[in-house]
Amino acid sequence: MPARYTMGIDLGGTTTSLAVIDARNYVAAKRSFPTRAEAGFDDVLRRISEAAAAALREHPCDALGVAAAAQVDVEAGVLVASPNLRFANEPLAARLRDALGLPVVLENDVSAAAYGEYLAAPQVREPLFAVFVGTGVGGGLVAGGDVFRGADGFAAEIGHVPVVATGGEPCGCGRRGCVEAYAGGSAIVRRANARRGPPPEVPAFTDVTGVVRAAAAGEAACQAVLEEAADYLGVALAAAVNLLNPGTLVVGGGVARAWPPLAPRALERMKESALPPALASLATREALLGAWAGAIGAAALARKPARS
Ligand SMILES: [Zn+2]
């Protein structure tokens, strides 16, 4: 009997990742390529279809799961809105189903990544709450073996948990004082440049790696911005622990990888603030799948019979 493969595609603001997994969730193939959202939805869709068709020739798949950096309507398979991709109201699942002849499910990328992390370790105690610190801060919740979305898909949106009562840094959501406005990669870069003072004698930081490098070289302002990012993240994590009582808490994302002390420091800070009984049996770990969590999680979600 042939192997039962499923495919997952993680449509991100800058990079699109594709993974094929087998029935035991092992990765059989993977590749990534630039999303180039500025070329428009039809062009992005065409390149995704070509990459998927090439992968299908090597590994015939039963279903495709797409994780998008977007607000999605899971039932309808519609990408509702996405500031990163600048697409709105696109019937992504139907278009890919027509192009590839496969059942297609659509999921938010952070929820798919949380589901990937849920499958990545044996005997995970539920609920699992996963936080990914990248350009922004995203969260995903897995309970009862499935993604928990809330009434409108905004469950587990830890990035916009306020950590400052009044005022605070402006956030991309239009509010102030959200944890993302301190701990997200864009916020870290913005805050490091502001603390550092005006150029021209030093070029402005453009990414978190530059801030991390300057901190390692002894720039106290950069070190402080990174430590504050971890501390604010820890406060938001404490709120999540008290609200959700997760069995497992996972911290990952590009900023966590770029500055390895982020997750341990945030978890320590969380332990100072969360309810002690909620911490007693909480398992914490760093993410295991790196940048592939969304594609792997989407592939696994595509296999769930209730969705196909
Ligand atoms: Zn916000």
Structure in words:
It is a single chain. The chain is an alpha/beta fold. The chain folds into two domains: 5-115 and 292-307, Nucleotidyltransferase, domain 5 (2-Layer Sandwich); 122-287, 2-Layer Sandwich (Nucleotidyltransferase, domain 5). It is 40% helix and 22% strand. It is built from eleven helices and 13 strands. It has helices at residues 41-58, 92-100, 109-120, 180-183, 185-196, 208-216, 220-244, 254-258, 262-273, 276-280, 293-303, and strands spanning 5-11, 15-21, 27-34, 61-68, 71-73, 78-81, 88-90, 104-108, 128-133, 137-143, 146-147, 248-252, 283-286. The strands form three sheets. A five-stranded mixed sheet has the order 3-2-1-4-8. The site of zinc ion has 6 residues, from loops.
Keywords, separated by commas or semicolons:
alpha/beta, binds zinc ion, Nucleotidyltransferase, domain 5, five-stranded mixed β-sheet, globular
CATH topology of the largest domain: Nucleotidyltransferase, domain 5
Give the number of helices: 11
Radius of gyration of CA atoms, rounded to a whole number? 19 Å
Residue ranges: pLDDT <50 for 5 or more in a row? none
Strand order of the largest sheet: 3-2-1-4-8
**What small ligands are held by the chains?**
zinc ion
Approximate shape: globular
How would you spell out the order of helices and strands?
A: EEEHEEEEHEHEEEHHHHEHHHEH
The major pleated sheet works out as: 5 strands, mixed
